From TrEMBL:
PROSITE patterns: ABC_TRANSPORTER_1 (PS00211), ABC_TRANSPORTER_2 (PS50893). Residues 34-273 form the ABC transporter domain. This is Phosphate ABC transporter ATP-binding protein PstB. PANTHER family: ABC TRANSPORTER I FAMILY MEMBER 17.
Length: 287
């Protein structure tokens, strides 16, 4: 597996060089780029998500589905240590990336987020120009050699270049919602991560903009590994290779917690789920 360690001091790729990626979405068994093992997530004394174990396949799209409050986004944020930013949050078990436990004391969380980028539910462009939005992470990570080329490459990768190339100094806030979300994708891929986490990236978009994002994901997966949280089961069925179904359960004390019910090939999960709770959810009988 051709991946890069996430300790601090990792050298940045040269301008124009694509992030390391191995394999494709072919029929051969994919490599595992990350692995969650017995992962539990706490907010203070609240045991919010319990005992999650699942692989993340390289250069494939993994979807997480389930009802509100089942821990999908919480698990997603744990994969690049975004939960570290929430007071009282902690993670037990292990999450490995490129063979390293990303929660090891020797691992720099900022380096983790450089290699595992994130796109949020609501487009969140900075109140800066289109160019400066994309260049922001490059400057923070001191990847400023060939800055113009890097920004163009990221905008092309997000299928936005042709729409904005003559207005790079224009405020990003003037873009449409769909364009803003693609700008956020460009900002995420500009630093050439290996994994791209997407938390409900289409929930605020109309069907046309949603179709563009889904088409873009199908293109990006040739160069990146994608993990997406979505409430839209049809979207998961359309774009993903593997799907994890989460449910919200009650423990003996009556406390609610998120639980991974089933993880499988997407076609199998939707056509022949192994667990009756999965079948009930995808058929609309609950959730």
């Amino acid at each position: 597996m051709n991946t890069t360690p996430v300790t601090s001091g990792t050298a940045a790729p040269a301008a124009g060089q694509q992030a390391p990626a191995v394999g494709s979405v072919a029929a051969t068994a994919p490599d595992t780029i990350a692995q969650l093992s017995d992962v539990s997530i706490y907010y203070g004394s609240n045991h919010a998500v319990r005992d999650v174990a699942m692989p993340i396949a390289e250069n494939q799209i993994t979807a997480m589905i389930g009802p509100s409050g089942c821990g999908k986004s919480t698990v997603l944020r744990s994969i690049n240590r975004m939960n570290d930013l929430i007071p009282g949050a902690r993670v037990t078990g292990s999450i490995t990336f490129a063979g390293q436990d990303i929660y090891s004391p020797q691992v720099d969380p900022i380096a983790v987020r450089r290699h595992i980028g994130m796109v949020f539910q609501k487009a969140n462009p900075f109140p800066k120009s289109i160019f400066d939005n994309v260049a922001y992470g490059l400057r923070v990570n001191k990847m400023t050699d060939g800055l113009q080329d890097r920004v163009e490459q990221a905008l092309r990768g997000a299928a936005l270049w042709d729409e904005v190339k003559d207005n790079l100094k224009k405020s990003a806030l003037a873009l449409s919602g769909g364009q803003q979300q693609r700008l956020c994708i460009a900002r995420a891929i500009a630093v050439q991560p290996q994994v791209l986490l997407m938390d409900e990236p289409c929930s605020a978009l109309d069907p046309i903009a949603t179709a563009k994002i889904e088409e873009l994901m199908n293109e990006l997966v040739n160069d990146y590994t994608i993990v997406i949280v979505t409430h839209n089961m049809q979207q998961a069925a359309r774009v993903s290779h593997s799907t994890a179904f989460f449910s919200a359960e009650l423990d003996d004390a009556g406390d609610r917690f998120g639980h991974l019910v089933e993880f499988s090939d997407t076609n199998k999960l939707f056509s022949n789920p192994a667990d009756s709770r999965t079948a009930d959810y995808i058929s609309g009988r609950f959730g």
